[in-house]
């Protein structure tokens, strides 16, 4: 009986904490502790990055890693060039002005990642920029010249939380760069991968096709690169097919990101 009462007491405490958090009653203490923890977490994160880079450079692996990174950079540049060329061919000048965010005058904010959290079902990052810098909930976040990383879901004065594209709750309307400009919905898969769903059964989707944001969502421009098709699931009796995608974002190495502000 004593053990049962203890279990019920502990369960009640956890439920009360969860409800208080959900209703926002713990916002003040959470923000207080976050301000204390962020500088420490940032230092630990940077030390972790430096340690990984140090050990990855030991021995004969250094040249191999360097060559692999150069290949990845060239591959991403190829995807960018291919995406930009396709967009310039298929869209008129007005739409291209909206889609060509890389060369446009849209407002952007550079930010540094200070905390990264992964728990198996969700993926998020905290950056060192917030409402003071014009960041708002819903802003898309990308790295390098236009590879989608995620979306802002929470904003404080000097920090903001990014929900990564691999997060289970992440959803983006997407388009495949092909003849039919195939539309679908990209969702995170178990915090590890991404999948494009709701693709009409009669659409011709190929392994290697590049997937980009469709521009159908407010404040999410067309042309942000999500990834490329790695495999396709297609059943004749189903109205839709789906495709597993590979993101081009190596989350262990992304340190600086860009937040695209609302216009």
From TrEMBL:
Residues 113-260 form the Rod shape-determining protein MreC beta-barrel core domain. Belongs to the MreC family. Keywords: Cell shape. The lineage of its organism: Bacteria, Candidatus Magasanikiibacteriota. InterPro entries: Cell/Rod_1, Cell/Rod_MreC_2, MreC, MreC_beta-barrel_core. It comes from Candidatus Magasanikbacteria bacterium GW2011_GWC2_41_17. It comes from the Bacteria. GO terms for cellular component: plasma membrane. This is Cell shape-determining protein MreC.
């Amino acid at each position: 009986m004593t053990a049962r009462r203890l279990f019920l007491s502990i369960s009640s405490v956890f439920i009360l904490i969860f409800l208080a958090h959900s209703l926002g009653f713990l916002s003040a203490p959470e923000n207080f502790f976050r301000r204390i923890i962020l500088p420490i977490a940032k230092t630990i994160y940077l030390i972790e990055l430096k340690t990984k880079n140090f050990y990855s450079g030991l021995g004969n692996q250094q040249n191999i890693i360097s060559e692999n990174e150069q290949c990845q950079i060239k591959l991403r540049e190829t995807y960018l060039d291919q995406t930009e060329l396709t967009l310039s061919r298929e869209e008129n000048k007005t739409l291209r002005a909206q889609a060509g965010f890389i060369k446009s005058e849209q407002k952007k904010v550079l930010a540094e990642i200070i905390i990264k959290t992964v728990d198996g079902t969700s993926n998020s990052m905290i950056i060192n920029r917030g409402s003071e810098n014009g960041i708002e909930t819903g802003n898309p976040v990308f790295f390098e010249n236009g590879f989608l990383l995620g979306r802002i879901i929470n904003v404080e004065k000097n920090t903001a939380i990014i929900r990564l594209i691999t997060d289970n709750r992440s959803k983006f309307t997407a388009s495949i760069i092909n003849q039919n400009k195939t539309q679908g919905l990209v969702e995170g898969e178990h915090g590890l991968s991404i999948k494009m769903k709701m693709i009409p059964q009669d659409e011709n989707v190929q392994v290697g096709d590049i997937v980009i944001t469709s521009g159908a969502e407010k404040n999410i421009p067309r042309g942000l690169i999500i990834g490329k098709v790695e495999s396709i699931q297609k059943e004749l009796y189903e109205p839709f097919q789906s495709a597993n995608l590979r993101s081009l974002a190596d989350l262990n190495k992304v340190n600086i990101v860009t937040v695209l502000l609302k216009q």
